Amino acid sequence: MNIRRIASSAIALFLLATGAAQAALHPGDKVQISVYNHPELQTQAIVDAQGRVSMPLVGAVPAQGASESELAARIQSRLASYMRYPAVDVTLMSQSSDMFVVGGPGGTVPYRPGDTLSTALTDVETACRCSLDESAGDTSRIRIIRNGVALGPFDAAQLRNAGDAGPAVLPGDTIAFANRPIAVAVKGAVKEPGTAYLSADQPLSTAIAQLGGLTAAASNQVLLRRDGQLVQIAEGSPEFSAAARPGDQLTIPSEEHIQVMGAVNSGGQIALKDDFTLVSAIYLAGGPNKWANLRHIMVRHRGITSTYDITRMQHGDLSENPALEDGDVVFVPEGHKIDWRSFFQDFIWLRFLLPNGRL
């Protein structure tokens, strides 16, 4: 008989004989995989959150709930396409002390002796810095997957209301959330554009919160596509706080902005409004600080830098207060100290000089 076949049969018989004493594998467990007479295929692998291990040639192999000998047999079966009589040995090197979360916020949480489902859910919220009530995971349908067997479902709210901590959890358990039933597509100026999953009673505003919230550039007007109709709604309007519907799509446009930098009290991005001017930008940036030089303010507009002296506006020269556009950059340099306080206190009379009474 071929020596490889003998070796393969011997290893297989040994693993089968010892398999009863082997623990089931869980995500996070580390194993060593050896292939007889093929040292180039020896590898160490960690069972991933989906319960698989990966190795050359065979790719990802299901491992969760399997014993070492069962995983070896699965790898051996796949290697049969590449070599004659493969002999595989799998050795458990270390076991995970973590629990794994799939669906909802995802991730891992550490196991502590005495943990229950309720304490594990608290740890999930701490890890994701989020509220599970606003996450994509349906907290009324939570399952615990252990050794390939699903326990539950469990309703977190019912457990909480009954004062029940829920079942005990163990290292290597996977806490699995089903998605909430209503999918809302959100794109535009949100931190994590994508799909939010909501319960039937949750409002559209929860979809944005679930995806990280609005960016600094977000407009307060939201486009809602519902039942084939596109409507514009304001953040905080009744439609925005009403329950979402299946198929809803939200688009959050970005407001036009300018950048104000230099010797101002609150520099950064400023939302651009109609008839927006240089003085408006400085005013909304908190006003100039005591070192500001208002006679040499630089404005980068359409790739060209120009300098303005807004103190001339005290003498009626409104050409020193140009209109600004999206993407313009305003830089207020430091320089000679001037009486900017009295200048900016005179905005009342300036409003009468400017078109539409705007700064």
Please give a structural write-up.
The chain has 359 residues and is of the alpha+beta class. It has 4 domains: 3-94, wza like fold, CATH 3.30.1950; 98-179, Outer membrane lipoprotein wza fold like; 182-252, Outer membrane lipoprotein wza domain like (Outer membrane lipoprotein wza fold like, Roll), CATH 3.10.560.10; 257-357, Outer membrane lipoprotein wza fold like. The protein is built from 9 helices and 20 strands. Strands 7-6-10-8-9 form a 5-stranded mixed beta sheet. Strands 12-11-15-13-14 form a 5-stranded mixed beta sheet, with helices on one face. The chain has a 5-stranded mixed beta sheet with strand order 17-16-20-18-19, covered by helices on one side. A hairpin with a 2-residue loop joins strand 8 and strand 9. Helix 1 (3-18) packs antiparallel against helix 2 (68-79). The longest helix is centred in the first third of the chain and has 16 residues, at 3-18. The protein is elongated and about 95 Å long.
